[in-house]
Design a protein that fits this description.
about 280 residues; mainly alpha
Length: about 280
């Protein structure tokens, strides 16, 4: 009996130990995922973030939502990013919502929902004094909407607040491009490129057809020349044969004449036979 109790206690102890070994600790996974994130090891960070989100969603805080949302946004999974940012806004304190709003606006823009992106940016425009990039992002959203005037307006505002820097130099170049009288939107350039390509293809097709017709005409001329040559040779052969037969006949006639001249006796006999026939 005592042995049986000891065995049961041992089994129970093993069970508890195994449960402790294999229990999922969301905080540990989150801590490790954030380390990977800051080390730019986004694939490893994504794997750990998703494990916590699936197995221990209660521990998945606003900061984790922001980080995983950023990873999704970088990999083109914009709708998943938007969903994570929205979850993060529900969990974040008011002071920490700005950064999530800013990233949410960019995810909407990347997803080509430019109006929604502008709506989010207008919610945080009060922070533009410390965060002038809001005007940069608004200009990008208006660029997506093909509103050139608003793009110029927002980017000029950005340059007033940030006149120097690598990003500012890029914006200056973009503004110069926008103000160019020959400026065209990317789709206009693409349409013209396609039209030019279509014209090139049509011209190439027309040239190929013209070449085909020239070749066909040359081939027809060659056939006609061959046919004329064949008829000419046939006619020449026929005339030569006629001439040969004529000469052969002429030679025979000459032989016959010479034969008659050489054999007068035969001629007398022939005349005698004719006389006899008359007498009868």
């Amino acid at each position: 009996m005592a042995k049986r109790i000891l065995v049961l206690v041992f089994i129970f102890t093993l069970f508890i130990s195994a449960a402790n070994v294999y229990s999922f600790n969301g905080e540990v996974y989150l801590s490790r995922a954030k380390q990977f994130y800051y080390q730019n090891k986004f694939f490893l960070a994504k794997e750990l973030f998703e494990k916590v989100l699936n197995k221990d969603p209660v521990k998945f805080n606003a900061e984790a939502c922001l980080m995983l949302g950023n990873i999704y946004d970088q990999h083109g999974k914009f709708k998943l990013a938007i969903s994570l940012y929205q979850r993060g806004l529900e969990l974040a304190s008011p002071k920490k919502k700005f950064k999530i709003y800013l990233n949410l606006s960019q995810a909407y823009r990347h997803d080509k929902n430019y109006l929604k992106s502008l709506e989010i940016l207008n919610k945080v425009i009060v922070h533009s004094g410390k965060h002038p990039e809001i005007f940069l992002f608004m200009g990008l959203a208006y660029f997506g909407l093909r509103n050139k005037a608003e793009v110029i307006n927002n980017w000029e505002t950005y340059l007033v607040k940030v006149p120097y820097g690598e990003q500012s130099e890029t914006v200056k170049k973009a503004l110069k491009w926008l103000r160019n009288p020959k400026f065209k939107w990317p789709e206009e350039i693409e349409r013209e490129r396609r039209e030019a390509e279509l014209r090139r293809q049509r011209a190439a097709a027309a040239a190929a057809e013209a070449q085909r017709r020239r070749i066909a005409e040359l081939e027809r001329q060659r056939r006609l020349q061959r046919e004329r040559a064949r008829k000419f040779l046939a006619e020449l052969k026929r005339r030569r044969e006629q001439e040969r037969l004529r000469r052969l006949q002429q030679q025979r006639d000459e032989v016959n004449i010479r034969t008659r001249r050489i054999n007068p006796r035969d001629r007398g006999r022939e005349e005698g036979r004719r006389f006899d026939e008359i007498e009868r």
